Amino acid sequence: MRDIVVILPNQLFEEHPCLTGKEPKEVEVFLVEECRYFTDFNFHKKKLILHRASMKTYEEYLLGRGYRVRYIEYKKDWREMVAGRRIYIVDPCDTKLLKSLPETAIICDSPAFIGGELKKGKKYLMGNYYKEQRRRLNILMEKGKPLGGKWSFDKENRKKLPKGHICPSISTCENKYIEEAREYVEKNFPRNPGDGDNFIYPVTFGDARRWLNEFIEDRLPLFGDYEDAIVEEEEFLYHSLLSPLLNIGLLTPMEVVERVLEAHEIPLNSREGFIRQVIGWREFIRQIYLIEGERERGANYFENKKKLPQSFYTGTTGNIPVDNVIRKVVKNAYSHHIERLMILGNYMLLKGYHPHEIYRWFMEMYIDAYDWVMVPNLYGMSQFADGGIFATKPYISSSNYILKMSDFERGPWCNEWDELYWGFLERHEEKLRKNPRMGLMMKQLKRRRERKLEKKDKD
């Protein structure tokens, strides 16, 4: 009897570990539209198109290598089909999914991660983890010290995009499977959020590598300078858009890092800044998920209770920067990390929406969103719902930060934002005073109160 290898939508590896060392005649592959990735949330149409198209191209890839493949759509229960049989499957890095696997499952390590264990503790610091990763992997090191004399060039990577600056365009990908996937999604998920047209993402190994090369040549040189910039009319700036490809296996992190390291002509601040995201932040977040994910998932430090309104699916909240980013997400299932953290996450936290509501929205709307990504990033970083397991402070700001980092013009939206900001500080003053990194904000709050009292006395 053939061994069964189950392959999930986020495990489309060119060299699949569960197939390594096995002859095609020895195995039967179950390529599965697992509900966790198709129906557990109302996923953005572009994310569903990505999964369907990449899985169908992967099916063709496996058939071309001589494997027997059963493609199982989301309406069928693949677990019933393998009942009592031994199966091989790559670790999905998803707590709920892992618990639902048959007892007969043999779990293989995932090539989607480079590794680097994080030890359980009371506090976790990404900076320390990143340094250890650099040392362990001997990346951007020179005689035991960081290349360029610094571990991080983050402080240099906060420039505002100059007026009139034109960012390079991003090539699009198209093949018969993308068109088939678009029709499949419109037929089966017509009411899901997002725009299914103008799909740009690679779904093959070749196109994924072409995108990687294009990023290194066209956008990586200025990635460092402008990675934190926010531009109203720019959707991608100098970002790589490689996260959805890394998260489904079309690229592996080590392959990406090695290509970036080969590009010696690229400024060090850009190479280091990008590599930090891959071997540092991405791996760190996965480790936090493995160690603290379940604790984070149940946390709500600020006791926020509001439900997220429908306007977050249409970009009609009435706040100009927020609606601008939402419209980008509706169109592309993507916005870059500062737009996620300092516009959407910032605003959502100030408004007092429940962390579960925010987690669900991000899981639905982003093409690179998976449980291991979003639990730490949302409950830990964006919403500080875990009270600071690894984030050193809540990531909130007044409108000044957004005006400083973007080309949005000052307007009535600033008044709303600032009222929310000061209201948040007032509402949670007792908790925030315990955080040493909130000292400046607390002093500003005190001065604001004093000015109000002075004005009242004069009146």
Automatic annotation (TrEMBL):
It comes from the Bacteria. Gene3D superfamilies: 1.25.40.80, Deoxyribodipyrimidine photolyase-related (1.10.10.1710), DNA Cyclobutane Dipyrimidine Photolyase, subunit A, domain 3 (1.10.579.10), HUPs (3.40.50.620). InterPro entries: Crypto/Photolyase_FAD-like_sf (IPR036134), PhrB-like (IPR007357), Rossmann-like_a/b/a_fold (IPR014729), UV-DNA_repair_photolyase (IPR052551). Pfam families: DPRP. This is Cryptochrome/photolyase family protein. It comes from Propionigenium maris DSM 9537. The lineage of its organism: Bacteria, Fusobacteriati, Fusobacteriota, Fusobacteriia, Fusobacteriales.
